[in-house]
Amino acid sequence: MPCRTKSVTAKAKTLKVPNSKKPTSKTQTKSTKKKQTKAKEDTKENRCITDFFPIVSRRALAAKVKLEEFNRQIQKCIETRTDPTENLIVTHFDEKGKGIVAGTALNKGSFICEYSGDLIDLIEAKARESKYEQSGAGCYMYYFNWNSVIHCVDATLPSGRLGRLINHSRKAPNCKTTIFEHNGQPHLIFIALRDIEVGEEILYDYGERDPKAIRSNPWITTT
């Protein structure tokens, strides 16, 4: 009488197993390999474009385009040495002389114009300042720190540029200066701190905190 183990083994040899993954012949092996290769090729061909390029949201793309346009506007004014005069109007005020008012509504963060003049180092700036004082002429010297070095933009001589005409206000400024680097050089530009209405005067804080200068010009702290 055959043992149970051999009997079970014999039956197992004749059992048909559908969808068996193990090939039973060389022909089946080759056929399976071809199918697997074709499936891999199909998978490569059907990959999404996002597998090769990052997904960029519409909001991020719009922000990028806006920033590029913002930079182009500033670069144009710097390279052509002009101001966006369609947005700005030179106005005379009885109590303080010339100033600049908005010719159109300006949104917060808008570029207003450049504080244009001669870019000079600290030594040259102090020499010019002393010369202006001796002659009794006013001066338009703007000192600022860039890359840990003190620079100065001297806009004393009239040039037709509008930045030098923007008046001071410590109490209610509606714009500020910031540094814009172009071709390896710093440029001072004005940016709106808030929305500015048509006809509103453009004002910024000169940043003068020297007691001697304030005593000579008390309007620095009262406006």
From TrEMBL:
Gene Ontology terms, MF aspect: histone H4K20 methyltransferase activity
CDD domains: SET_SETD8
Stored Pfam families: SET (PF00856)
GO cellular component term of the entry, any: polytene chromosome
Originating organism: Blomia tropicalis
Gene Ontology BP term (one): regulation of DNA damage response, signal transduction by p53 class mediator
SET domain residues: 76-207
Domain of life per record: Eukaryota
Biased composition (Low complexity): 20-30
Protein's UniProt name: SET domain-containing protein
Annotated region described as Disordered, given as residue ranges: 1-42
